[in-house]
What we know:
Blueprint: H1 3-14, E1 25-30, E2 33-39, E3 41-42, E4 46-47, H2 49-60, E5 69-74, H3 90-97, E6 101-106, H4 112-122, E7 125-128, H5 132-145
Parallel strand pairs: 5-6, 6-7
Antiparallel strand pairs: 1-2, 1-5, 3-4
Helix pairs in contact: 1-5
Amino acid sequence: MKEKDIFKHLLKLGQDSPNRDGAVTAALVRNEKIFLAAPSIDSGVIVHGEHNLLGYVYKSGDPILPEDTLYTTLEPCSGRFDSSLFIPDCTSIIIASGVKNIVYAATDPVQSALSGKRFEVAGVRVGQAQDQDIIEQARELFNSKVVGYSV
């Protein structure tokens, strides 16, 4: 699958997300095919797309392979704003999962600096999608669902 097709799938998946913290969707791509994909969810506690996806991967019993790539519509968070819920940030979850390759669409100016440094130290390769239309659509998707914050 081409990068643009992967992100088109993720953007469509995110359109139905009721997440009031901004819609983020993520996919694990293996052998050039989407292995699993998941949106962010809000069931009283907000679970970001990357966290939700890696939970599904864990439950599947399949290991993360070195060549797998995590695609996400928004740069992974490196901290949660409501620490009283004790939910780990996506950067920590991704590093702990063993994912070594990430491609994101929209940047998150609040999260970028710290997550980038943490991924670098952990040996995770991170890059931004090249298609400007995909980047803008991912930004619009997140901002259309978010309350009180935008990218």
